[in-house]
Design the sequence.
């Protein structure tokens, strides 16, 4: 009886030892797996960090290139200067930066300031002074205005490196350009030719007066014809409201604008260079957007925000 008990006890303790060994082995394998998983996670994390560093170095490089080209465009205004060739070089770098922003590898965001309906004799030059002062390149959607001063304004906008774009010759929304596709395109071509003759640059970006939805059921037909002309078009996704209300205070324009800024990676801002309130608000708009991580670029045809269909 006694020996049977001892033998049972031996078997039991052997079994317990075996279970303990198995448990220990499982724990060891588990620990090893955890260890290797952690190692793998560290490797992945380091790889990601490396990739991010590389991307930010690349981005800094392209921002530097953009800054240099911007300085070139702004400063080299002598007779041998070819603003069109320099512009193309600039746009290529801008496109790379835009793609990096969209891919999430660039830390900054891009704001395209656009000014519609100009040039204005009373105000446009002062807008240009502020843009110069803050080293910002923007886009002007021009109408067919042809006094000597208007021509001077357009030339200064162009030779400062801003993008010159088309907003139709007449901007006549009622009983005018939206009568038919032909009427609209005729007005676009008239303005394109006028600007081309003045500065030797062929515009290729259009903003529909009132925005593209204003074209209603003509829009598809117009866009097809714009494509044939090598034109893209752009609407906007932020504004200070100066297209509808022209007598607000500076603070109200600033507030309106930032109410429409929602961290858009690429953001097209609609403004008008006839509005005194916007002119006063412009420094705060520029510094406020910079504080939110935006850099400023002029629009270019290849941009992701310029629609081609
Ligand atoms: Zn307009």
Sequence:
């Amino acid at each position: 009886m006694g020996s049977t008990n001892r033998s049972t006890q031996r078997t039991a303790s052997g079994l317990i030892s075996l279970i303990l060994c198995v448990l220990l082995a499982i724990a060891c394998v588990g620990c090893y797996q955890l260890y290797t998983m952690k190692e793998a996670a560290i490797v992945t994390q380091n790889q990601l960090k490396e990739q991010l560093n590389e991307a930010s170095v690349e981005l800094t490089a392209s921002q530097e290139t953009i800054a240099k080209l911007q300085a070139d465009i702004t400063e080299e205004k002598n007779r041998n200067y070819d603003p069109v060739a320099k512009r193309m070089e600039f746009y290529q770098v801008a496109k790379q930066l835009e793609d990096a922003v969209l891919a999430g590898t660039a830390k900054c965001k891009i704001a395209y300031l656009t000014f519609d309906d100009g040039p204005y004799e009373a105000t446009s030059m002062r807008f240009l002074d502020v843009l110069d002062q803050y080293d910002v390149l923007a886009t002007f959607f021009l109408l067919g205005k042809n006094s000597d001063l208007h021509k001077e304004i357009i030339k200064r906008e162009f030779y400062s490196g801003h993008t010159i774009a088309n907003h139709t010759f007449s901007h006549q929304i009622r009983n005018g350009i939206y009568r038919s596709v032909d009427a609209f395109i005729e007005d676009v071509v008239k303005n394109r030719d006028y600007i081309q003759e003045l500065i030797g640059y062929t515009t290729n970006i259009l903003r529909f007066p009132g925005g593209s939805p204003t074209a209603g059921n003509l829009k598809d037909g117009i866009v097809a014809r714009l494509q044939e002309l090598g034109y893209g078009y752009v609407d906007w996704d932020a504004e200070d409201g100066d297209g509808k209300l022209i007598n607000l205070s500076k603070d109200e324009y600033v507030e309106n604008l930032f109410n429409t800024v929602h961290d858009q990676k690429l953001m097209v801002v609609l403004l008008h260079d006839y509005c005194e309130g916007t002119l006063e608000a412009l420094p705060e708009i520029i510094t406020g957007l910079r504080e939110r991580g935006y850099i400023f670029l002029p629009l270019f045809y290849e941009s992701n925000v310029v629609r081609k269909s």
Observations:
- The longest helix spans residues 2-75.
- The radius of gyration is 31 Å.
- Residues 116-117, 167, 171, 209 surround zinc ion (CB under 6 Å).
- The helical segments are 2-75, 83-103, 124-133, 148-159, 181-199, 219-228, 250-259, 276-291.
